[in-house]
Each structure stands twice: as structure tokens, then as C-alpha cells.
Amino acid sequence: MDTEAHKIRTKKVIVSGIVQGVGFRPLTFRVAKKNNIVGTVQNIGGMVEIVTQSSEENFQQFLYDLQTADCEGCEIIKIQISDISAEDQQVYPDFKIIESTANREVSIIPPDLATCDRCLGELYEKGNRRFFNPFISCMSCGPRYTIMDVLPYDRDTTTMVDFPMCEGCNEEYVSPESRRFHAQTISCHDCGPYLILKEYNKRSSQEEIQAKEWRGVRASSLGRGVKCINQPPRAGYKRDENRTEPCEKPVRPLNSHQVSIYKSKKRFERAVRLLKRGGILAVKGIGGYHFVCSPFLEETVQKLRQLKGREEKPFAVMFESVADIRQHCHVSPQEEQLLKSKARPIVLLYSQNEQMAPSTYKASIYCGAFLPYTPLQTMLVRACGPLIMTSGNISDQPIIREDSQMLALDSPLLDGILYNKRRILRSVDDSVAKIIDGKPQLIRRSRGYVPYPVFLPEREDNLKIFAAGGDLKASFCLYNRGSAVVSQYFGDLEEGSVLAEYRQGVADLSRLLKIQPELTVCDLHPNYFSTKFTEAMDRPLLYVQHHHAHVASVMAEHHLNDDKVIGIAFDGTGYGLDGHIWGSEFMICQGADFQRLAHLKYTTMLGGDGSMKDAKKTATCFLLGAGLEQYVSDERKTLIQAALTHGVNTIQTSSVGRLFDAVSSILDIRQENQYEGECAAYLEKEALLAEKSGVAAVPMAFGLIRQGSLLEIDAAPVLEVLCGLEWDQESGQGGRKRYEDQSAYLLRRQALALGFHYALAEVVLEVCRLLGQEQQTNKVAFSGGVFQNCVLTQRVLQLLERDGFSVYYNEAVPPNDGCISLGQIFVGIMNKDGSESVQLQSDRIKE
Prior knowledge:
Residues 265-448 form the YrdC-like domain. By secondary structure, this protein is an alpha/beta fold. It contains 25 helices and 31 strands. It is globular and about 90 Å long.
């Protein structure tokens, strides 16, 4: 016998990862019991500490079982094991879950989790004590981040503290056999929360009056012998509609549990009737309110657009199941997996029919579809069918989370509010994603993903860092001990209410993670609100160029710490080292350093960043700059030309995003951006339609010009093809006016749109070949909002990988400006000895 293997030892095990709010302590308890382990388990800050007393053999089996056990939502990142010396040991009679402590620095907090299948089964299981409970949850599902006040994660550190457990829930909470053993969000009809329905401009129906009468009866007495008129019928009995006299027989009273179910069902049924009649409801969710209505009723959807002030942007639709989604959209296996993931993002899918109201998706080729992630949402879509479920806000404002704010809205376009008294501590919008090249690409990283960290190199000095991100699609990032927590999406900081929410979010997450930054990082743009906010923090500060941060975010995700990488950043705007607006950048990046080596030839444009909406004006500026004046059809041509000549309110830009706007206008697809990226989205739609129908791309090519150490990409040859092939020299007309057959015109437009995308991908390959040879590297990292374009991104990947390049892109964070804060953090971590390019950027801001 191996006496050493059977010798009793006491060990301390520290487990890091997503191990709070996911049932990890109860799991540890069960695994310890199974392996005859005695000791304790407790939450300590953001980790779990386990003290074990057992033989080495049992301990090793315990560790194996713990790491391989099925624990939905749990992710173990690191396990640290140490022996407890004999003098510090105590004798443990059994294994216990003990009171949590907050004596450790916090790094990992669980995100909000979609309702699990077992809870959904109980939701519709008659006789179950949580039957039809819109707040059912367990160890594996329910709100976490949005209700958590401080760590460690316990009921009294969340907003569930407002709802004391009833006797039945408490029995489950303390029972190791229960799947709600130490489930902090445990509740039922007796505990609360409860549904509340406020209706606007509605005369009480007879049924509503009866419900009010019944509540009055319950308030007066629930004893035997109570006489009542129109009491809600008990199961198995029909109401006598002709009865006018009070009941003479003693009535069996409902207990408080039955009354709670009855009231909840009545309020829910009234809400469903409102929706089915074409009403618009505000419904409280996990991270804030949604505006909810039918996607099939055009008048109702138009009212919703008025309510939100949202003219063109498509709405997201919630479906009960993937089978329901397939009736409206194409769903690949990868898209199905993403739809069903615990994060439950809105997934952009290729729409394949037109059953819904025209105003639901407008002219978009994509359907934003998602599955329910709360019990109440499941109940609503099961009762009503698919529902528009859009953020409960006025466009460009933060999502509303406070009941008082929604109740104060009191819009004549809103028919009611379905809410509850569970407080939401932080607004977290729905995440948005799509599949590109078979992998998820996030477009908005928020609920379900935040605040899960990205793991980066640890600095030896344990420096704590704050990165402010950018002003558009704003997020910030906090770094401590190798863990970078990117915040939820906030919106655009130029909106005062969004900036206020952002400021509050920084203070809130810094408190929750217990991080007081010793270094701050922000964008190079001197007029960004995020830059000014960071400067006001009065801490050591680094400035990081916008497009460098884009590429650095990819390097951070893929641990390209010291690799030499060809970085590509394509987007709409970003302040450059030369004071111009960049947006088509090729650079060599290594560590915290970068060097710009190629870009789109500068175009002089009018109106600064504010001109982004007017695609026709953008097209005029591009055509005049390319020497293609003969193709300009803008009636403001003379005025624009004079302003450009005299430098009146002009900027120099190398933005690919603006080039997409110009091409959209030239091809008469869209002349204005009603929302950010609209022109580019519809240009992508034309190219995608061409790909799917097998239309051949019109050949065209960008030029390359060497300017000293820089390569300039010349768009003039492409613009000339786009204009010239469509132009009739005799009539002086282009576009659809040349075609009597509109279908022929549309096919031609699709072929030109596809040709533009392919030409851009080809020039990316050409530049990467040149830079790869010069810099002796085959690694390419690309980022930026333009790479949300499926046609371009997939073509770039195909060409580069076929040519032998190792290609990296954003997966954990969006490629748009939602990734900027992570990239800034990466530069801050890698800037250990004072990077030359970081210093150059800091010097630039001081000029």
C-alpha cells in the first residue's frame, strides 16, 4: 500500500474564472462529498477559495471531477494549489459552504445568462410551484451583472435583497440535492418580483373590473363563507355568465400562492391582448426596457418609429424558436449555434421572405433575429408569435432602466408598461453579432458577454490601467493582473445623456472591480469627449492613435505580443498623426510601436465629420478630387468646387468609409446616411445579391503610387469605371436613366457594386504582398467598422490566406470602435520602456 497517497493533507485551492453566479460552490460541495473530502468553499472577491482535507488520491480525483463536471456558464481559467502547514491546520468534520468574503482584488464577474432549458420546462409544468413565473431562474441562468451591487456574489449583494426568500425557496436554497442550492436569484410567486401592468388611454373592460373586484375581496377577507360576485372560477368549473346574485355556498379560498399566480396571469393576459390588438408595450427586461409590438402590422411599426424617432434603421425581431426563425430567414448551423448560445445575441441573418410589415426591416437584406433570454420574453413570444423587441429608448439616447423614467415618458404612442420592482443597477443593451467566415463577429458587445474579460499579458509591476475608448460606439476598458474588462456598449458620447451614462459606468465598474487606475490611455483626437474625460482624471496619460488602437485590439485578442504584424484599419474617421482624418491605414505594428506605410490617397472634403450624412456631397468631393468633374451630377457642384478651391471648412481624409458612401451615391443606391453606415450597408446589399445570384463582378482596379516611404492607393481608376460605364455621353445622363429595362439596370448595378468590393480586396492583397516582402512578415491583423462588411471581409480572407498569409481579426470584441479601448489597453501594457511611436503621439497632442 502507498502510505504517502493515503496520508491526510490539507490544501488551499484558489479557482479563478467565471466561478461566481454560476453554481460553482454547490458543484464543489457535491464533488467534495462524492470524493470524501472535508473542508470549506467560499467566494473571495471574484474568485473561489476551497480548503480540502483528504488523502492525495482523493484530492487528485476531486480536482479532476471538478474540472470535468458539467457546470453551465462556468469557466475555470486558473487553479492555484498550496499546502497548508501543520501549525495552521484545523480539523474539519465535514464539507461546508461558508460565508463569502471580499478581501481579494476582483477581476472576473459573471455576465447575465439566458434562461436554461430546465427552468423553461418548469415554467410550463402545471403543478410546479414556479408554473408561469416570469422570473424563474436557477444556478445556471438569470441576471447577474445587471443586478450585482458588490462582490462577492450573494443574494444580499444583489437587488434580489429586496425580495426575501419564502420558506419553500429557502428549503431549496439550503438543500444540496436541489438544483437551486445556493442559487442567489431563487424566487417564486410568493417571494416576488411580480408583474405590474400600467395601461394608457384605456377604458376598463368588464374583465378588468372583475379582477379589481377580486383583489378587493382578497383584501377584505379570504376566509370560508365569503360571498362574492363574479369570483374567478376555480380549475374545472365554468363561470355562470347569467348569475346576478351573490354565491350562497361557502367558497374555498385561494391561498396567497394561488392569488399571486392568478394576478400575474391576468396582468400577462392583458398585456398579450394589447399586443395582439396592435399596441406598443414597454417591457422591463434584464438590462433595461424594450419597446415591444407586432412586426406584421405596418401601422403599429410606423407608430413605433415615431415613438423612437427612428426613420430607417431596421428593427430586431424575437422568435420563440430557431424553427420559427427559419420561416423568415436562412439559418446556417453556425448561426443556429450563436442564436442558442447563453449570450443570446441578436444575430443578423439573410432574410428570405417578405411576410413582415415593410417598415420592420425597411430595405435591409438582413433580419436581426434573436431568441428569448428571460422567462417573460418566452411567455410573450409563445403567446403572440414573433415580436419586435427593440431597445426602450429614444434614438441615440441610453436605454431606459429606471421605472420612474419610463413611467414619466407617458407617450400617446405607448399603450402600456409591463414592469416589476426588481432594480436594474446598470443599463446593458442587447448584443448584436453575425457569422463571417464561419465564426461569430460581434457588432455590439453588451448583454451576455460583458463583463467577461479578455486575458492579456501580466505586467510585472501589476500596473492598473484605464482606457477610455473612442467617442463613437463608446466602451471603456479596465485592466488588472492580466485581465482586461471591456465595458458594455454606451453609444455616441456627443449625446449628453450618453456621456453621463458613460461617466457613471466608469465609476461603477471601477468600484465593482476595485480598480483605481495608475495609468490612463485615450484617443489622440484632442476634441473627443473621451479624451477630455481622461485628461480630467489627472493620472499618468498615454495617447494612442485611433487606427493603431484598432489593430492593437486584434493583437491583444490573439496574443501577438511581440510579433511583427501588418496592420490594416478601414473605417470612417480617426484623427491622424498629421492632423488629417485617417481611415484606410496599412501599418507595421510590433509591441506598442507602429509605423504607417500605406493609405488611400487624401481627398479634400467639406464640412468636417458633420458631412458624413450627405453621401452625394461626399461623392462630388471624391469625383472632383479624382479629376472626374464631367461625371458630377450634384446641383451644388459650383458651390462645392469653390469651397474646395478656397479651403472653406475643408478636411483631408483617407477614409474608406467615406469612399463607400461616395460609391453608394454614384451607383444611385443611397444618397444620404439616415443612420451611421446606411449607405455602406446598402452598397454591401447590392454586392451580396450579385454573389448570391451568380452575377459576374465588373473588373476594375485601384492604382498604387509611391510617395517616398509611403504607398498611396488611388481610387480614381475605380471611380472612373463606376461612372464611365454608366454614362451616356450624348445625353449627359448616367445611372438608371440610361436603361429602359429597370431589371437590367439593377443587375448592372449589382455587378458594379461587387466589382468595387473585389477591387478593394485585391488592392489589400497587393499592398500586403509589398509590405510583407519589405518587412519580412506574413502576419496580417485587420480591424475597423468597414470589416463588418461580409462581402469584403470574406474576399480579403480568401485572397490573403490563399497567398500564404496568417490572418487575424476581431472575435472577442467588435471590429468597429467598440474595440478601441481594448487596443488602447494593449498599447498601455506593452509600453513598458517608453515606445517611440507612443511618445510621438503624446508629443503630437501637446503641439
